[in-house]
Amino acid sequence: MQTTFPRLLLEHAKARPDAPALREKEYGIWQTLSWSDLAALVRPLACGMAERGMQRGDHVVVIGENRPRLYAAMLAAQALGAVPVPLYQDAVAAEYVFPINNAEVKFAVVEDQEQVDKMLELREQCPQLAHIWYDDPRGLRKYDEPGLLALDALIEAGRTFAAANPGFFDAEIARSTPQDVAAMFFTSGTTGNPKGVVHTHFSLLDRAAAGQRFDRLTEREEVLAYMPPAWVGQNIFSYAQWLACGYVVNCPESSATVTIDLKEIGPTYYFAPPRIFEGLLTSVMIRMEDASAIKRRLFHHYMEVARRVGPQLLDGKAISFADRLSYRLGDLLVYGPLRNSLGLSRVRVAYTAGEAIGPDLFTFYRSIGINLKQLYGSTETAVFVCLQPDHAVRADTVGVPIDGVEIRLTEQGEILVKSPGLLKEYYKNPAATAEVLTADGWYHTGDAGFLDASGHLKIIDRAKDVGRIVGGVNDGAIFAPKYVENKLKFFPHIKEAVAFGDRREKVCAFVNIDFEAVGNWAERRNLPYAGYADLACKPAVLELIRECVEKVNADLAQDDKLAGSQISRFLVLHKELDADDGEMTRTRKVKRGFINDRYRVLVDAMYGGKAEQHIETVVKFEDGRTGSVSATLKIIDAKTFPAIRKAA
């Protein structure tokens, strides 16, 4: 798409001035901002930024939840040729130091007092951070810091500047080209400092338009923007595609009201990583366990019908009259109310990405009539590489390459991608850029996979994570940790899992229980507990998790290639894996190497045949203080099953 983000804004404002562009829920009421309102907000914002010294090529960090005025601030910066750098709003101040210094950031646009405090805290380490502009003034009335200013005051200064320089804003937009840098996203940094992924207007908008054509998106779509704007997936769906398509983006009141807001909006186009779908399913299962015996029987009966019939209906396959009738009845009694309860009753297209989704979880949503599909991409590819076409959706693939994408496999099975959406570079990191981009324009994804006979891409795991079992009865068997972990996480009682096994003779795993789901389970059985650590070590809970592990093992035994990945031993961790403790990224991907090193004593105990192991772990609290939690963890042996050889 040969245009820029600010030009698209002006085009929508001219062609559809009164159409809604953004909605924000405030004090329980949805407030609407039209395209003309948005353009009228961006103009003085850009002029105010220019008056304060922002120039073409400058970087500006944007930190906060999805808020219309933060979106407007990104558009304003882009109108001047500056580069927005969204950062995760739940990060602690220390995590901002590297990206702010790496990108030589002088300007910050933040949401509220919490983010202002973080910026002020790190000013000593980031002396070039001269200007901090905030959206929500609550709690900031008595702050008196150099360069600290409300967005309202910046807008007023911009209006004065615009009046004195009437042609400035339009001239700046006209100067920008599609090949100019539009945004920079910092990777999650699972193996070191994050890298700044540089994207142009063209790379982001070209992929947004390709996705638009693939799913026939229109300006009538409704989207709920609830994931962090710093995550490229959220940025593509609620910013790049928003401007490419002109649909409505809805911003929830807070993270605590997302479930309610989802039901009120009823999005038609929905995007979430697997963990969100896992959480929604867990809430459903908890409610069903609390329901009456009749309702539980009804639910389980019709879910059996749904699993058999639902995906075939979505794929447009022929269904017998009896099955169609039974599914219709199930839709009336179970699936329809369930979709409505989840807030997904109007969804036309739903996508999941970010990491692999468990096949059982994926099938559940398609079974109840939600057109959930998978896509494949990354920050470096502007998200859209492969998408699943309607009526050709399978749980074990991530779809077909879309317009403009070529895929090639190395001899080692690594996936290479060539696409108009590839990153321009890693900022100030030519060595890292050269590692992933070949001279002839191929991007090394780091993922292992293959194209099947129908042209669909199958992902096995991260290439560096796929290993082999060494020694024992499964010597030489493939070990794909993510595949195993996703199977575990399908169970509502398991929130997170980390599997070990590469170059070892068997597979062992750490498990995090889902505190809400297991707590509910325990309360119904009158099982008292004092908190997470206490609940996690209860013998009844360990037995519950053992049953889940053994069901996964029985399932893995059905796959000749992955039967060697069955879990022999496991333990339930005494604390939840946490991004603040460095154990996960802000997108909740486990830092496998870090966890292996941090909990080396537990890993060694599992492989050393011990029945239990004491552990003391330093943790970081939300207010920045540190403390420690300790426990003696039981190590449980799980039953494994012989591989079932399938007939040729």
Architecture overview:
By secondary structure, the protein is α/β, with parallel strands linked by helices. The longest helix is centred in the middle third of the chain and has 22 residues, at 293-314. The protein contains 21 helices and 28 strands. The chain folds into three domains: 5-271, Rossmann fold (3-Layer(aba) Sandwich), CATH 3.40.50.12780; 274-462, Rossmann fold (3-Layer(aba) Sandwich), CATH 3.40.50.12780; 467-637, ANL, C-terminal domain (GMP Synthetase, Chain A, domain 3). Helix content is 39%, strand content 21%. Strand 13, helix 14 (359-367) and strand 14 form a beta-alpha-beta unit. The protein starts with a helix and ends in an 11-residue tail after the last strand. The strands form seven sheets. A five-stranded parallel sheet has the order 4-3-5-6-7, sandwiched between helices. It has a five-stranded mixed sheet with strand order 12-13-14-15-16, with helices on both faces. The chain has a five-stranded mixed sheet with strand order 24-25-26-28-27, with helices on both faces.
Architecture blueprint of SSEs:
Blueprint: H1 5-15, E1 20-26, E2 29-34, H2 35-51, E3 59-63, H3 68-79, E4 83-87, H4 93-102, E5 107-110, H5 113-121, E6 131-134, E7 148-150, H6 151-164, H7 168-175, E8 181-186, E9 196-200, H8 201-215, E10 222-224, H9 232-245, E11 248-251, H10 258-265, E12 269-271, H11 274-290, H12 293-314, H13 321-342, E13 349-352, H14 359-367, E14 372-376, E15 386-387, E16 400-401, E17 406-409, E18 414-418, E19 425-426, H15 430-436, E20 443-451, E21 457-462, E22 467-468, E23 478-479, H16 481-489, E24 494-500, E25 507-513, H17 515-524, H18 532-536, H19 539-556, E26 567-572, H20 592-598, H21 600-607, E27 612-620, E28 626-637
Parallel strand pairs: 1-11, 3-4, 3-5, 5-6, 6-7, 10-11, 12-13, 13-14, 25-26
Antiparallel strand pairs: 1-2, 8-9, 9-19, 14-15, 15-16, 17-18, 18-20, 20-21, 22-23, 24-25, 26-28, 27-28
Helix pairs in contact: 1-2, 1-3, 2-3, 2-6, 8-9, 11-17, 12-13, 12-14
